Amino acid sequence: MRPYCISSVLLLLASCVSMTSATYKVPLEKAAEPKMDPIPMLPAITQRVFMDIEVDGKSIGRIVFGLFGGIAPKAAENFIAMCLCDHGVGKQSGKQLCYKHSKIHRVIPNFAFQGGDHVHGDGTGMETIYGELFQDESFEVKHNRRYMLNAVNAGKKNTNGSQWFVSTVKTQWLDGKYVIFGMVLEGMRVMNKIESLGSYSGIPSAEIVVANSGSLPAKDGDETPRLVSWKLKK
Q: Phi/psi at 85 (nearest 5 deg)?
């Protein structure tokens, strides 16, 4: 091999080593901590209420709700009052402002069940303790878990009334459209029974009624925000 060939090869190798050492340096400084999304948390429970459910006159058990009064105080106050039935008769409807004996009139499997029409019992009526519809208070809580308690509106923002619905699946497409003001804490078996009576038209195959309702004392831990992954008691 000719001398100039060896020299050319050596020069080429030296050039490659130089480029490599200049481009790929071993980092000596400490790597920055990776940025992680915050763990999704639910608001603290401020009040507990319950509904005892009957199907065709037979008891199937109790659903216990935890309310997010810290972010949706008006919705929570109205729901509590309607469960306690302590605000008398509505001025507009002439009907008692009360969830007792009201129907769960709409049940769609793998979506939600709806109640709270104490006026007509079919989803066409709703009157609050305020005498009128009230504004959206917060869209902070997302529909990223099952069994969230929502305020039903009249199809547009700031039209919340006495009707409510519980989502039985994740319903992220409802984010920013319906205010979540609570969650179910107990009663999965009862909700499964309710859902089994539903149809894709929403008309249940049996009469589902709130036989009794009221408030419950808070429990230890209610003041502590729960993870979105918190599991519901059966």
A: 60, 40
Class of residue 190 by CB neighbours under 10 A (exposed 0-12, middle 13-18, buried 19+): buried
Rounded distance, CA 195 to CA 168, Å?
8
Strand partners, 214: 50
Q: Which two tokens stand for residue 163?
A: 């009707």
Distances (CA, A) of 49 to 11, 92, 103, 143: 83, 26, 17, 21
Sorted by sequence, the CB contacts under 8 Å of residue 152 that are 6+ apart come out as: 114, 116, 126, 160, 161, 163, 164, 165, 178
User: pTM of the entire structure?
Assistant: 0.83
Q: Cα–Cα distance between 39 and 25 in angstroms, integer?
A: 35
Nearest to 202 by CA among 95, 75, 117, 132: 117
182's tokens = 């609570």
Nearest to 117 by CA among 106, 132, 128, 102: 102
| Residue position matching structure tokens 């004392």 | 217
* Segment 2-24, tens digit of pLDDT: 444 444 444 554 554 444 444 55
Cβ proximity of 95 and 127 under 8 Å? yes
| Sign of the torsion angle spanned by Cα atoms 165, 169, 172, 173 | negative
> Among residues 178, 26, 13, 209, which one has the least CA distance to residue 115?
209
The tens digit of pLDDT for each residue in 20-79 reads: 444 556 666 666 666 655 678 999 999 999 999 999 999 999 999 999 999 999 999 999
